[in-house]
Amino acid sequence: RQVTMVGANLTDANLSNSNLRVANVSWSTLARANLSGANLYRAKLCWSNLSGAVLVEAVLIDANLNRTNFRDADLRRAIMPDGSTNES
After folding, report:
1. How far is 74 from 37, CA to CA, in rounded Å?
2. Considering the domain boundaries, does residue 3 fall inside one?
3. Which of 24, 39, 42, 48 is 20 to 30 Å apart from 1, CA to CA?
4. pTM to 2 decimals?
5. Residue 37 belongs to some domain of the structure
6. Residue 84: CB partners within 8 Å, gap ≥ 6?
7. Mean pLDDT, residues 69-76
8. 43 Cβ contact list (under 8 Å, min separation 6)
């Protein structure tokens, strides 16, 4: 089952530990959202705004992040699309 939230306004949402695997969240606003520990495997986040979002330990493997705004986002220990871990 695929979750589709294209164009959603999820500003300040608490989505920690959510399973958004293969979700389509393109063109959405997730500014300052808490996505700590979220599973975003193969999710589509194209053109989304994640400025100031918390993605600590989130899984972003194979996610489509084309034109995604991560300004001031917390990506500590997040697993990036290429499988690398952001340790900083």
Report:
1. 12
2. yes
3. 48
4. 0.92
5. yes
6. none
7. 97
8. 20, 21, 22, 23, 24, 25, 60, 63, 64
Q: Which residue segment(s) compose the domain that 24 sits in?
A: 1-79
Task: Kindly list the distances between the CA atom of residue 69 and the CA atoms of 1, 2, 62, in Å, as whole numbers in the listed order.
Answer: 27, 23, 17
**Structural domain tally of the chain?**
1
Cα 38 to Cα 11, 18, distances in angstroms: 16, 5
Residue 35 belongs to some domain of the structure: yes
Integer angstrom CA distances of residue 7 from 10, 11, 40, 88: 9, 12, 17, 30
pLDDT digits (tens, 9 = 90+) for 28-70: 999 999 999 999 999 999 999 999 999 999 999 999 999 999 9
